[in-house]
């Protein structure tokens, strides 16, 4: 393989990986790619054009770029993004100025900076993929750069020219022989070793988050519907978006617990078009009570409602761009805790704090850049109609805040009365409203509702809409007949990932439903008036692609759990686990050394571990036999041996061809009048040929070097080398000696 | 400080491997420290992953360079006869005694101490397969004449990433006697010969016509062996040649500088070195022309003789003599029976050095020749 070409390809792969990690982060603007992609592609062709290598030109461009980018960074405050811009500019500048090994090395350093930037802006699984590629390419690139540097250094030390036109050493025969697919495979194995060691360092390097400076926050997935106020009708477009917003692991039978209802935000005030929170509801109280198991208590009451099922789930949020930092969970949240342990976060400001507001919304505050991963304990309370029909204690004063309505079309009140006429309990009236909406209205994502009175348009005009219209209609109709109710936004449904045994919630699972206050249990109870086809988003079709994407997503969750969320607490647990396992192995030993002299204990212990012991012994035996067999050629078939013989014969034939070509070159030189004697060495011949006709030096050099390698170095030339030597010989003989310029 | 330095040097000698961080290696370490700080500060686990990669690069560099150097043996081959300022090739045989793994990018050079200013281009083996032997040649250039001691041979590698240069030293003490630089000179005597042809004397010499046969002596040039006769007689017989002329020259070298202020001493020493170089060059010219060349310095005398062996003796003597200082009682003691042409070679400043003796020619300064006919006697 040609060294120069291989090195160039490897360098571009490395640089490409640096850009890829940024591309996959989605953080860089389209302008970034529009500027750099063509520049990089053009550098392949024009990278070593002397006119484009002018240091003055590139320094001016970089200086101007620095000024512009610094100005933009100052105005936007996004220093990281524009530092990446500048680093990328320097990469491109170096791609056009690659001269010596120092330039190549600088190129690698700049590409490394891109990887570091990628680590900050791209914490997804794609980083793992890019990192693996990067480790392989950087290993190749550094080894090749090392060889280039050695050759350049030796050429520099070769101060006194001895008159022999040796040519660049990088193109030498031995170098070409070394740079082979086998060499790259060996280097890749080295890269895997590097990767394995990197993982070890990653696992055991103590995580002590000092947190002197802030971190970069990613631009998250834009999610609407979770702010202090929402306009009716803006929720619908989410239903078509398959972007993952969170992954949920559940204790117990995950599939049986589907669909999940993850409440996020509740509203209390409706003005005819917009739902919002009253100022008093917006107030937040920090949750101070820490339970023994590290959870933070959310509810004061300890006694669960009758028939309630406790659900413990671990929620791994994606980066979400929402106004309120909402903690999603099943409606009756009992306790919550941040999975990223705060115990070793020395900077108090970076610890996660949980809050609750006047509408029982759970919120969090954290200065960490990573999205929240939390564990939440909730109650799933069945809607027990009989119990809810019971009259309870007096309705608390604050619940009356959920009754007011704006001035609405009188038909709304009339409709509410008509639906609930003759029903005595709140439960029956609520059920009637729910049933009426479910039966008489159609789910539709098409808009077209009047912007002035969308609810009236929904109830009496179009008679179709999405979940927000249904929940709003339910709440307004309930309030119209004196039932305290409120709309709730969150996620409902989820797709079960059987590969990783967890549930994925997408933007499409965003949902709105209603809650009604029941004094009999002193709790809010969910009512969902949206027809089932609309409440549950369609699951993706179960094809090969879906299976594959689930497997990838499962890896993504593992990545979050084991890499992104790897902290000191996990490290300690991991080490304790190793310790326990070692102790388990050591259990056998005291019995042999200690009081049990009868060896009975040892025998019992061995019996208990018989299968793994036999497995280990067989594995060791297999490995030993494989190593011995490989050395002695047990696995080499006759056909392969015969192939080996044929290969030797082919090698000899190629050697003979090189010798024959050299002799023909000698004869040709003699015919051209050069004084060839038996003592003329190959190098001397090259000097003579060069003196006689300078144009033939390049063509003759390869043949002469190959001849030397074959005769003195016992090298086996490849078929390509033989072909090139033939072409070189033809080019030499095509020249008329003495006609060229010296 | 000196004691510390000496102790450190001694310790270093004891270590089986020595390591030096290259410029790129220093940058790698700086980046690793910076990234480590960044990772600890931010708690970003992906930075820890990259930090792991950087640390791996350092560890793998150490392991692979060790594997490269392990099992390598080296033997010094021919060393050649170096003249100051000229390249000399020294061959080494590298042997990879490892049975399985090869060694990459192995450099071989002489393990001179740091004070030695010899310019080296190490011998280099790109790839040494398992159990393979490989001959490599290092190129050396010594700046000045003298005796250069090397305790052994240094085998080094920067493999695999050029971040570190690791080496081990093999004990193979060697003294390089570096002859004075040879420059282009014209001998005062030959300069004045109009015809350019020397008369033939009926004397045994090296440079003229065939004279006769005699028993081979150990110091004879192997080229002079008459193989046909040797084969016939069953013992080695050498040819004798008639001398080109009965011309004998003594080169008298003033290897002393006058005692001067310290600041000027080095300059004077340099000029004396030039004079010694001129003396060696003159000896070469005379010797090549078939003259019997003798050498007389303040530190010894070599009687006139012909042949390449004589030239080597002169070079060797000139390589080892010190530069003396002061106006002590120096004398050129040339035996009367052997007196021929006498050429005094000295630096311009050395004219002030009091010398006893007689000479025919003075060769002084940078190639200037003068003939005062009588010589100087003090």
How would you portray this structure in words?
The complex is a heterodimer of chains A (742) and B (378). Chain A has 24 helices and 21 strands. Chain A has 742 residues and is α+β, with helices and mostly antiparallel strands. Chain A folds into 3 domains: 195 residues, no CATH class; 322 residues, Roll (C8orf32 fold), CATH 3.10.620; 97 residues, no CATH class. In chain A, the strands form 6 sheets. A 7-stranded antiparallel beta sheet of chain A has the order 8-11-14-9-3-19-18. A 4-stranded antiparallel beta sheet of chain A has the order 4-17-20-21. The longest helix of chain A is centred in the C-terminal third of the chain and has 34 residues. With 378 residues, chain B is an alpha/beta fold. Chain B folds into 3 domains: 166 residues, Immunoglobulins (Immunoglobulin-like, Sandwich), CATH 2.60.40; 41 residues, no CATH class; 123 residues, 3-Layer(aba) Sandwich (Rossmann fold). Chain B has 7 helices and 21 strands. Chain B has a 6-stranded mixed beta sheet, with helices on one face. Chain B has a 5-stranded antiparallel beta sheet with strand order 1-9-8-4-6. A 4-stranded antiparallel beta sheet of chain B has the order 2-3-7-5, with no helix packed on it. In chain B, α2 runs antiparallel to α3 and α6 packs antiparallel against α7. In chain B, 39% of the residues are buried. The C terminus of chain B is likely disordered. The chains are: A alpha+beta (742), B alpha/beta (378). The interface between A and B is large, with 54 and 41 residues.
